Amino acid sequence: MSHHQVGTDDAVEFVQSATLQNAPSAVERQVRIRVLDTLAAMIAGYRQDGIDIVRDYAIDRFGGEKKAVATLLNGNGVRVHMEGATLANATAANALDIDDGHREVKGHPAAVVVPAALAAAEFVDATVDQFLDAVYVGYEIGVRAGMAIHETDDVYTGTGSWGALCCGRRCSSSTVFPRTDGTRTRNRRVSRSTDTDHAWC
Questions:
Q1: Rounded CA gap, 189 and 172, in Å?
Q2: What is the pLDDT of residue 126?
């Protein structure tokens, strides 16, 4: 997305059409680093005490052969529904607090967007490039929403206040693989004034 004032229509167009192929090489490199970093944090996080609680919940609540479409990255290959995999993998990614952080939004974007994009990509058997595109767009939108919130509100607002936008549209299986016409996306408020071309930089 271009810098300065970014309106809803700009955000919708970005969500629907942006790919890493058209992004600067430095941005693509950062996406790949964030993905690898988050996968490592996720795998390590499953060894943390207490993660078994959310893992077992994901299996009990979102398991079953008909729902088994996405993998828990805890080393045993268990598959559950997308929501369960996203919940458990995201919790594991943040468990040790070694996942990436973004100081301007006071949160952890990749721990939200990578598990959601991964589950959706696995569900539809997406390509690696499609998965990375989803991470790129989700991260960009989520961080920009967080920056907009902090620009208009002095109250501390961490990942919980803007994180859902990271995986709201582009990481949903029906949107990123394939894309929609953007009507539903446009109904979500995304407006941002920023001084940088990409949230990654």
A1: 17
A2: 93
Element (H, E) at 32: helix 25-45
DSSP code of 102?
B
Best CA proximity match to 141, nearest among 172, 169, 165: 165
Torsion of CA 58, 59, 60, 62, to 10 degrees: 70
State yes or no: pLDDT of 182 exceeds 80: no
Which candidate, 76, 53, 79, places its Cα nearest to that of 64? 79
Place of tokens 């058997």: 125
Find the helix or strand (DSSP H, E) in which 71 lies: strand 70-71
Q: What whole-number distance in Å separates Cα of residue 161 and Cα of residue 48? A: 25
How close are the terminal C-alpha atoms of the chain, in Å?
12
Alpha-helical (H) ranges within 46-127 are 51-62, 82-95, 109-124
CA distance 114 to 66: 24
The Cα 89–Cα 119 span in angstroms is 9
- Using CA atoms, how far apart are residues 109 and 158, in angstroms rounded to an integer? 10
Sign of the CA dihedral with 122 first, then 125, 129, and 135 last: negative
Q: What is the pLDDT of residues 36-65, one digit of tens each?
A: 999 999 999 999 999 999 999 999 999 987
Tokens standing for 192? 């941002």
Instruction: Report if pTM > 0.70.
Output: yes
C-beta of residue 188 within 8 angstroms of C-beta of residue 168: yes
